[in-house]
């Protein structure tokens, strides 16, 4: 039992470091929960719970940037609540065997998003600059896109931040600090409503989740001091290798 504690804390620690520096911490924490015997759906719900504290603390740290967009916040929060709850319900209604088969595909999807997220953001920024959402149809499509992203986040948390950044770029946001704040706010809202439904349905492995959560908090704090010293290229390479390796493992397994 002690080695499991240390293993989960270490997974949370490195996941927190990755989330703070480059994103992709779920590639460490979600498989770690599976490796110690947590059932797949419960591991996914527990990973959402463990990650949420980092989202909330990050959003709070960027609260000044968020206040500059206070007019947009109600719309973002409401859509995130609806989408997050829908995704969580879909997860809870999914048979364990089906979700187990979906794990490698979900991890592969999240890995590809991490690899190509920067290019997607740049392409969407260029598109957004030339199409400053002039029509009602464009606004509606953006709303539906955010809803779909929130559903994905409620169902499977990995890669959520990258998708949200792409959405914000498409909507025309340009301030990276504000975008990070909005990303963390949306992630927090999606996760909180999903966690509430997971709690009601008893889907969270509390013991493992709390250990991972403390690990992510410590890792995120340490990363604040390391982020200026670690080359981002090395960190991104590690995340890509981890995500690819985990995807391959679950395809073979």
Please provide a written account of the structure.
The chain has 253 residues and is mainly α. The chain has helices at residues 2-21, 26-35, 40-61, 63-67, 73-93, 96-130, 136-155, 160-171, 176-200, 206-226, 232-252. The relative contact order is 0.22. The protein has one domain (2-252).
Structural class: mainly alpha
Q: Radius of gyration, Cα only, in angstroms?
A: 17 Å
Strand content: under 5%
Count of alpha/pi helices: 11
What is the domain tally? 1
Chain-averaged pLDDT: 83
Shape: globular
Number of strands: 0
Helical percentage: over 70%
Question: How far apart lie the N and C ends?
Answer: 25 Å
Q: Biggest sheet, open or closed, and with what strands and sense?
A: none
List keywords for this structure.
single chain; 253 residues; mainly alpha; 11 helices; globular
Summarize the structure.
The protein is mostly helical and 253 residues long.
Lay out the secondary structure.
Elements: H1 2-21, H2 26-35, H3 40-61, H4 63-67, H5 73-93, H6 96-130, H7 136-155, H8 160-171, H9 176-200, H10 206-226, H11 232-252
């Amino acid at each position: 039992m002690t080695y499991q504690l240390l293993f989960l804390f270490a997974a949370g620690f490195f996941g927190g470091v990755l989330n703070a520096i480059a994103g992709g911490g779920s590639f460490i924490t979600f498989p770690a929960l599976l490796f110690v015997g947590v059932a797949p759906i419960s591991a996914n719900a527990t990973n959402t719970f463990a990650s949420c504290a980092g989202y909330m603390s990050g959003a709070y740290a960027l609260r000044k940037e968020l206040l500059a967009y206070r007019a947009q916040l109600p719309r973002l929060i409401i859509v995130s609540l609806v989408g997050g709850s829908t995704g969580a319900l879909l997860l809870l209604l999914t048979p364990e065997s089906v979700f187990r088969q979906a794990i490698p595909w979900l991890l592969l999807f999240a890995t590809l998003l991490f690899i190509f997220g920067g290019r997607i953001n740049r392409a969407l920024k260029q598109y957004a600059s030339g199409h400053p959402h002039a029509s009602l149809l464009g606004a509606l499509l953006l709303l539906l896109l955010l809803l779909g992203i929130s559903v994905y986040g409620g169902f499977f948390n990995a890669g959520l931040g990258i998708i949200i950044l792409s959405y914000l770029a498409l909507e025309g946001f340009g301030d990276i600090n504000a975008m990070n704040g909005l990303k963390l706010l949306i992630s927090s809202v999606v996760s909180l409503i999903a966690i509430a439904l997971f709690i009601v349905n008893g889907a969270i492995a509390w013991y493992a989740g709390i250990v991972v959560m403390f690990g992510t908090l410590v890792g995120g704090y340490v990363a604040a001091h390391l982020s200026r010293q670690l080359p981002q290229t090395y960190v991104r390479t590690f995340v890509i290798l981890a995500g690819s390796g985990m995807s391959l493992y679950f395809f073979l397994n």
